[in-house]
From TrEMBL:
Formation of pseudouridine at positions 38, 39 and 40 in the anticodon stem and loop of transfer RNAs. This is tRNA pseudouridine synthase A. SUPFAM superfamilies: Pseudouridine synthase (SSF55120). It catalyses: uridine(38/39/40) in tRNA = pseudouridine(38/39/40) in tRNA. One of its GO terms (biological process) is tRNA pseudouridine synthesis. The keyword Translocase does not apply. It is an enzyme of class 5 (isomerase).
Amino acid sequence: MITMQRIAMAVEFDGRPFHGWQQQDHASTVQGSLQDALQSIEGRTVSTVAAGRTDAGVHGEALLVHADVSASRWQRSHRAYLHGCNSRLPDSVRVVGVRAVEADFHARFDCRGRSYRYQIWNRQTAPALQQWRHWWLPRQLDIGLMQQAAMHCLGKHDFSALRAAGCQAAHAEKEIRMLEVSRDGYCIHIQVAADAFLYHMVRNLVGNLVEVGAGKRTPDDFASLLASRDRQRGAATAPAHGLYFTNAFYDDFNARDLIAGCD
């Protein structure tokens, strides 16, 4: 009988080639690629569980994933295991850090919070470089107004107004712990952290903040939208390619803690 070791991996990926995280028949997914690589190492089927499930086109910087692997193979060399996994992955996916965890650790159910960043390229001309890393918006956005609107989201609220159709969450109450809007040259960053997120919640949030920044609605209008709990009153969903899963938080570590530096 093989002795197993549960490991946690920080996974980085370019979302463009994939139909999201979750494995699907006849479609390329991040989970499918990772499990294929682990199966090649282990010589058996390996299941993975992630802190969250990203949609098609969404990128990841440090998505926390757990899996059960051979303890003897893992103990021989942690670094070799990481490099062996990466050598079997497509260029668009990398395991950027790994550590052993307790046998009952669960990447999803033990997660205390998650964070995302959304990137907007805000100038008249579209970017020639990294055009699939940002949402290009040629109309000047007022980030001061966007920041005012964002303040209405902080804390625990019912976010039904930002909840997409098809969301399977039992309720819409979530706690946003951090929401920052900043500008770096032409790039606007919207960074958000919460205990958990509803389906398309971040992209719907961004769509509404952009309307505030463009002068199509006021910060108070946005507050009224949240209070209404009516998704139909909200803005269109922001495109997937500007969104990044950035971190997952646990009691004694977070996903970014795992990221390996240079040798």
